[in-house]
Amino acid sequence: MLHSSDRPRSHSHARVRGAAFTASDGPRLGPVAVTGAAVPRRFSALLLTVIAIAVATGLSFADWMPSRAAATTVAVGDFWFGNSSSVGVPFVTNINRGDTVQWAWGTTRAHTVTETDSAFNPNGGTNIGDSGSIAGPYGPITFNTAGTFYYFCVLHPDDMRGQVNVAAPPAAAITVAVGDFWFGNSGSVGATFVVNINGGDTVQWVWQTTRAHTVTETDSAFSPNGGTNVGDSGSIAGPYGPITFNNAGTFYYFCILHPDDMRGQVNVTGSSGGGGSTGPAPGSVVGPRTSIIRIGYPEGARLFSPNNITITAGDTVNWSLAYGNHDVTSGYPSSPSYQSPGGKAGMPTTVSSFSRVFNTTGTYTFYCDEHAGDSDARIGDIDGSIRDGKMVGKIVVLAADATGPATSGVSVSPNPAAGVSSVTVSAVITDSGTVTSPIINAEAFINSVGTPGTGAFLPMTDGAWDEISESVSGSLSIAGLPAGSYSIYVRGQDQRGNWGATQSVSLSISSTGSGGGGTGGGAGTNTATVVVLSGSLSNQATPVAFANVSLTGVDTVISTSPLPWQAFDGTGTGSGWNVTVTSTDFTSPSSGIIGVSNFKVRLLSTAITTVSGGSPPTTRVPTFVALSTTAPLKVISASTGSGMGRYSYVPDFQLTITGSTRSGTYTASLAVTMNTGP
Questions:
Q1: What would the pLDDT profile of 232-281 be if each residue is shown by its tens digit?
Q2: Across the strands, what pairs with 92?
Q3: Rounded distance, CA 647 to CA 186, Å?
Q4: What DSSP character marks residue 554?
Q5: Which of 108, 118, 246, 368 would you label with 77, given CA atoms 20 to 30 Å apart?
Q6: Is-contact 605 536, C-beta < 8 A?
Q7: Is the CB of residue 438 less than 8 Å from the CB of residue 465?
């Protein structure tokens, strides 16, 4: 059983896994698995696995995956949203959950796009927000929660009003094949098979073999998933499910009987339900976990699997008989005793598993009395006995996480704030120490700190509460506050329920928006100050997904564009920056290679949008240019003094499939890196 905190993490790269597809050059049909995963958005470098093509005559990309998000543009004129007939009436936009809306100016006059009530702020980590007085464009804004969202122009409130209706798309039913020894398809042996779904969709596992397997969640931390979770099918020959996933997140599972070969992952985007929800809600506090140790696995082996685990105080260990006639006898120390039912005569078929709770830190050993000895399980010999393949095991019990996470990099925007009803508060919440847990919650307060859980909720920015360091950002209402200086406090909570200490930043609210009044010195003159803290560079990238293609004997060129990528320069230095991309060749385990020289990228100037900030960056690849495995290709750059803010951009990708390409599963990995400098 794997803990969520045990999964490797990098502070320089984040992986987006692409799953395989089944392909053929004949009429054979089979499951098509096209996958991707959410990209953590804190770091300056990203590693993407490109979802390659399915060279086949079978199912299409659209047959398998939920539909891609749609982008809607709302025109802004004088004095209307949408069109000139909407002057004085709300302009209504109907979209589905996960879609984006952008406001495009058809006039040089300044207007605002301002949400009407701070109650609408928690909208999947984003909301209509407040554009401020600009001449556009504004957005795109992604709506991840179903509901109704209202906005207006602060400068022309009687004439310019708008409404976005967000509908939850119909639930989809996804089927995952189970074979020997894979989930999804035979190409996923030893790899993680990934399925991307929307909140409210269901997944069912269907056996294509008579051999027994399990579908088992890797950690009880993933249990609070709208009342359902991947769970544990037990050892069966299927089917298992359907399981409904109602909350956004990443859910991992594996086959206990074949853990090295059979692993799976379900990525859930958005959440089901109507409006008024809190979007990416806080995660759930997770108590003691249960780890499973298989006895006599692999088949016929005189082994425990795993035979060396680390848990925390209060956790439970469950021993489950897989094959053969074995027992479990406690070694050193002897407390807690975990002599298995059946004793030295072995575990009878009527008692196939048993559990013990470990409340005290330390190292505990165990062995099979039939196939090892007490001397093999002594503390001084246990590691060597494990290396020698003896039927022994070790449990290391660490202290439970009792320390709250630290908060850093707190910032408020705009600051000073003038003429706005809310500000955006951002921070980084990090759990540190000997024992760590994922972050599950963050909150903000104005001037005074309340009891835990009573502050303004700050959602995570990468779509899932699943790491020990999370960037958070959310809206904080300042409606009705008089002009003056205020302290904004932020703190976070980890998965074990520990709240950390607060970090604060000063916010200046000005009713006029000017830097001061009067004509200089004299009685009653005040001084206004503000501290602006530097941030960092970060680039957010989404997966690249090519559609399926059938071989025709001639070269075929296919194209695709991902959902918008986003570059953020919060350094406050104006030093400029570059985003570069390299790629591996497209490879197939059984078929061959599509060289990286066939893989090209382009970024049009019109595909670069200023979300917030000053002078925008510029494209470095206005026409298609081939990627390389070694030479980083500059895609977008900001010269000195420009690119200070947040910018959205959509690169186009092109792939040439030669007529001599063999059918099969092809994947490549993109390294997307953001560096300082012109």
A1: 777 788 899 888 887 767 788 888 778 778 888 888 775 543 332 233 56
A2: 163
A3: 41
A4: S
A5: 118
A6: no
A7: yes
